[in-house]
Amino acid sequence: MTNSFTQIKNLANFKDKEATIAGWLYNSRSSGKIQFLIIRDGTGLCQCIAEKGKVPDELFEELRHLGQESSLTVTGAVRKDERSVGGYELAVSGAEIIHTTTDYPITPKSHGIDFLLKHRHLHLRSQRQWCIGKIRHTVIDAIRRFFNDNGFILIDTPIFTAMAGEDTQTLFGVDYFGEPLHLTQTGQLHLESAAMSFGKVYCFGPTFRAEKSKTRRHLTEFWMVEPEVAFIDLDGLLELAENFVSFIVAQVLQKNKSELEALGADTATLSKIRPPFYRLTYTEAVEILAGERTKEFLAKQLEELKGQKEQTEKRIAGLEEEQKGQIKQWKREKNAAELIELRTELDEVNVRIENNPKHAKLAAGFQWGKDLGGSDETIISQMHDKPVFVTHYPKAAKAFYMKTDRGNEKVVLNFDLLAPAGFGEIIGGSVREDNHNLLVERIKDQGLNIENYTWYLDLRKYGSVPHGGFGLGVERTVAWVTGERHIRQCIAFPRLMDRVYI
Ligand code: 4AD
Ligand code: MG
Fold it and tell me: Is the distance from CB of 406 to CB of 417 less than 8 angstroms?
């Protein structure tokens, strides 16, 4: 079947003419003589209005009983209507039902997150997942565009590897014909080798980490893009990263305005994302965390959370009261959906109220030398309206390949980029240690098997140059721009420690 149907996104071209769309029944309601059918076709939503008398009686009845997610084609005159979902509606003159669905498991009544994850293969059809999926597509397109247009060469780095780039606790082992290998945690080490050939390179692929933490920021399989540049210093890297992130955000704002609105994303803040970003050293970040400003900030936040809790509880009580009375079925279903959302929200607020004093204590007692934890990052990122670079971390807390600051041997020339509004780290990067002997020391210090790094050390023997790069996590970036709190919603089929269903 060749597809000669009109796509919903193109309906404007058919104003006052006839068109046939093909899709799935997203939602419907009927008021006796008129039926409102919302059809989705992958490009958008369209309200189709079927009036008794204007379509054959038999079809009118069939449409009235058609189950959610049935597939069909609908023909009718295209009318402009500002109030309609996509701005245009269809005055139905005919329809052909392709496949009838009964008992679609995901109803407009809304469900808990566990149920939805178990039905991810169907939940992908929801408006929310559809909007996030489209924005993810733009983010990935922008990533490739940025590097391709700025003279970077794409290098595909291997997935099976013997080397650990990051924390050896998070390796996924594989039996490679009897030899123990693992799935890659980063393409960086191989990329450094390619940078010595091409100058500016990037890799982009799936990344695997056996994260035992069940946080909203960790997946066990995620997508990471990593640029690597020869002859660059820390300032150069920060500039590259802020231009890169600003470009991604600008592309999403330009191409996904309606999706961002549908998701309730904070477009006002996103439009302010342009260079320069804030710059803090790790030492400054620690001073902020342990200082008065953070104490006051967290105390104020606690008050706000308590207010939010009170309001949410009030709204829940109001809705529960309404549900006890005599109300229309559609209103009852709408209330039920809102109640599920409000209860989830209340749970989250309660967790934050519980965590607030713990985080305050951790921040106040923060000792120079530790890596910043999730809660510390959250606090710093909540205190800023634009992304923040945190640079020069203690050497002992960081990966072996990071270059020691020659002016202060205790720290390395690295950075994390924290997204604002509490989203936390989206980029980690550094200048690389380019001195052979210092690198050997660092590898040994970290208890890594030096034999696995022979070829990597060669790069410091043959024309070693200052170089560096960074890695940006796609799902964390999508979570930030869409305002989605949990990164499991930012990849079609998420892999988490306790969840690999579909
Ligand atoms: O900070 P990370 O560990 O840096 C590296 O892997 C470097 N080798 C990159 C480089 O310099 N070429 O990870 C980089 C980014 C993080 O900032 C985060 O966005 C993402 O990868 N990330 C994760 N995303 C989802 N789930 C996880 N478990 C993640 N771990 C890291
Ligand atoms: Mg990191």
Answer: no
Give residue 396's Cα distance to chain centre.
Answer: 30
Q: Domain limits at 94?
A: 8-99
Q: Looking at the structure, tell me whether residues 415 and 441 fall in a common domain.
A: yes
Q: For residue 272, count CB atoms less than 10 angstroms from its CB and return exposed for 0-12, middle for 13-18, buried for 19 or more.
A: exposed
Please tell me whether residues 310 and 324 are part of one structural domain.
yes
Same domain, residue pair 359 and 295: yes
- Residue matched to tokens 């997150």: 113
Residue where one domain finishes, among candidates 65, 99, 133:
99
Amino acid at the residue 470:
F
Judge whether 35 lies within some domain: yes
User: From CA 192, how far away is CA 45, in angstroms rounded?
Assistant: 46
Average pLDDT over residues 46-69: 95
Q: Is 54 helix (H, G, I), strand (E, B) or coil?
A: coil
Ligand closest in space to the Cα of 224: 1
Residue 3: CB atoms within 10 A of its CB come to 7
Q: Is the pTM of this model over 0.90?
A: yes
pLDDT of 5-32, one tens digit each?
Answer: 999 999 999 999 999 999 999 999 988 8
Q: How far, in Å, are 46, 59, 189, 194, 266 from residue 19 at the CA level?
A: 12, 18, 55, 53, 36
Q: Is the pLDDT of residue 377 over 60?
A: yes
Which of 168, 171, 207, when mutated, tests ligand 1's pocket best, judged by the most ligand atoms within 8 Å of its CB? 207
Instruction: Starting from the CA of residue 226, give the closest ligand.
Output: 1
Atom 28 of ligand 1, residue of closest alpha carbon: 218
